[in-house]
Design brief:
Number of strands: 11
Oligomer: single chain
Distance between the termini: 23 Å
Strand content: over 45%
Strand order of the largest sheet: 4-5-6-7
Structural class: mainly beta
């Protein structure tokens, strides 16, 4: 739920509980799926922010769990591989559109590995932005 142009709130409501987690960063993507394979839906939230290790503002992925009716972070990632442009979750994997340091693009899959996301494979690398967007959209079309 978006409360204002600069504050979104992730909320979980059940018959007996309600829990919220404020997101005081711009949100560019929201999707759900069972990231860690435990049988319950997780929330994947794309936010724009800096981190301790990457002080330049950039797109990040935060993953939240429903832990006994409470919103709790599972992973608040600084970075996957390259500079994240977009992501979607399907078939147990995060498919990411990323920019490299030389302004080329990759489309890659990541999956949950204990604590955090782990690289699985490239669908393409060293391609143009237009090629990457086309491939990303094709791979993530519902």
């Amino acid at each position: 739920m978006q409360k204002s142009d600069s504050l979104s709130v992730l909320s979980i409501s059940t018959d007996s509980t309600h829990s919220e987690w404020p997101l005081s960063y711009p949100v560019y993507r929201f999707c759900t799926g069972d990231v860690d394979g435990d049988g319950s839906e997780d929330a994947l939230v794309g936010v724009v922010k800096s981190t301790r290790f990457f002080p330049e503002k950039g797109r990040r992925i935060f993953i939240f769990k429903n832990f006994h009716g409470l919103v709790r972070p599972l992973w608040m990632g600084s970075r996957l591989g390259g500079k994240l442009e977009d992501f979607k979750f399907a078939n147990g994997k995060v498919t990411a559109l990323e920019r490299t340091d030389d302004d080329r693009y990759v489309v890659a899959d990541y999956e949950w590995k204990g604590f955090g996301m782990s690289f699985v494979r490239f669908h393409a690398k060293n391609i143009t932005r237009e090629q990457a967007i086309e491939l990303f959209n094709k791979l993530t079309a519902l």
